[in-house]
Design the sequence.
């Protein structure tokens, strides 16, 4: 990262090399995107200017330039976007906090970069169903699957309670489970087709019944009704499998699969 003096400071953030987003001025006079300098300090675990290397023993109050950034218009959330937990207008979140168990837009994320106590919180890329995505024991993301205990675990779990167990990634476990769902769906579809075929044969035989068609129809009514009930139940189970297989998030998919299997 090249240093530059105060008189020749570039018009772009020296960390992301892009246009300023919520510019924040340090006591030394250099400016950065608030999110960029906040992340820099959080990862570095020290408050230092990336340009002049000025060190600040305590986190300084960052002055943000609100005038250089026009207010964002409220637009409907796009598919897959997670709403900010503090926004009345529900703007899209840009980070999720594993300590607060909440997701924030760029504006409401400011406090995590301004306050020293919040600055130590672990921020991750936005995730849906945040509480279900975090280990309740260690507070870390659930990114692995323990096949031995059939449980979603975090990195700390793999080194402690589940050490020595058969552990794979959540994505790999999700891929295996989706193959299993496809096989189950095919079996259900075959069972549905077999029962539908039997119903058609019974109805076809009724059309050519013997001397007493009324008696034949009464005898065949009960098995047809039973078969149709079985078909409806199988179709419902197959619809549930298809809905489950369309779950995009691998962790959420595995958790739902385990819940349905229990």
Sequence:
């Amino acid at each position: 990262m090249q240093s530059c003096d105060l008189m020749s400071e570039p018009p772009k953030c020296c960390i992301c090399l892009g246009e300023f987003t919520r510019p924040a001025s340090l006591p030394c006079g250099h400016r950065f995107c608030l999110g960029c300098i906040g992340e820099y300090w959080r990862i570095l675990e020290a408050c230092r200017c990336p340009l002049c290397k000025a060190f600040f023993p305590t986190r300084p109050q960052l002055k943000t330039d609100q005038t250089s950034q026009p207010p964002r218009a409220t637009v409907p959330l796009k598919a897959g976007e997670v709403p900010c937990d503090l926004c009345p207008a529900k703007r899209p979140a840009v980070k999720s906090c594993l300590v607060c168990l909440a997701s924030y837009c760029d504006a409401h994320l400011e406090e995590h970069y301004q306050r020293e106590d919040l600055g130590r919180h672990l921020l991750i890329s936005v995730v849906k169903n945040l509480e279900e995505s975090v280990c309740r024991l260690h507070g870390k993301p659930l990114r692995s699957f323990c096949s031995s205990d059939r449980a979603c675990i975090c990195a700390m779990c793999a080194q402690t309670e589940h050490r020595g167990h058969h552990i794979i990634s959540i994505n790999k476990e999700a891929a295996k489970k989706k193959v299993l769902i496809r096989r189950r769906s095919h079996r259900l579809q075959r069972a549905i087709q077999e029962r539908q075929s039997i119903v058609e044969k019974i109805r076809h035989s009724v059309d050519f019944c013997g001397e007493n068609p009324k008696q034949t129809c009464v005898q065949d009514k009960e098995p047809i009704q039973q078969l149709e009930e079985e078909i409806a139940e199988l179709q419902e189970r197959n619809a549930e499998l298809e809905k489950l297989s369309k779950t995009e998030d691998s962790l959420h998919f595995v958790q739902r699969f385990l819940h349905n299997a229990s």
